[in-house]
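Query structure, 185 tokens:
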């Protein structure tokens, strides 16, 4: 994510410069994956923000909300209500700065994550943020047809296809479990 310029001791950002991968990186930090607030290092690596303790709490809040939505525990309408409440409480406003649409706030830089999600929902691309069928990570599907189900075809996709082939062909280890090494009994 890029902060374009500071406005009135708040943050102004251009909607088109927000990066979905920063959001995905935050959702995949070990702390957020386990329902906790991210560490300062995790937040900085994922988003580039150097956050205060309150920023870490807010980043954890949005992480929990988004993971609940992606796992089906929270409806998108309820997610939008939470986002709108957060934006109202941080007095977010739209502005035009140097001919560019920007959003400013007198609050935390974490507001950019909430704005990114709101923009993705409004523009109809939120459905491209998904939970991988092979592991617990979140990914953004940037493929042309938007039908990816694994975060990585090389890892999760391959594991699923190999597992399906082994079940179909009866590959078992000497211990009797489904084979993971390729040997047959």
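Result returned for the query:
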């Amino acid at each position: 994510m890029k902060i374009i310029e500071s406005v009135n001791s708040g943050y102004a950002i251009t909607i088109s410069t927000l990066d979905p991968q920063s959001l995905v990186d935050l959702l995949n930090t070990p702390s957020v994956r386990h329902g906790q607030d991210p560490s300062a290092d995790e937040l900085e690596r994922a988003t580039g923000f150097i956050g205060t303790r309150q920023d870490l709490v807010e980043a954890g809040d949005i992480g929990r909300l988004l993971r609940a939505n992606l796992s089906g525990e929270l409806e998108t309408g309820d997610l939008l209500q939470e986002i709108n409440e957060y934006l109202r409480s941080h007095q977010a406003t739209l502005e035009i700065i140097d001919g560019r649409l920007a959003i400013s706030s007198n609050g935390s830089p974490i507001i950019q994550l909430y704005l990114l999600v709101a923009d993705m929902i409004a523009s109809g691309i939120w459905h491209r943020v998904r939970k991988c069928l092979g592991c617990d990570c979140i990914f953004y599907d940037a493929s042309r047809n938007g039908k990816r189900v694994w975060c990585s075809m090389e890892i999760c996709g391959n594991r699923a296809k190999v597992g399906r082939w082994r079940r179909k062909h009866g590959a078992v280890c000497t211990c009797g479990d489904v084979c993971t090494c390729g040997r047959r009994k």
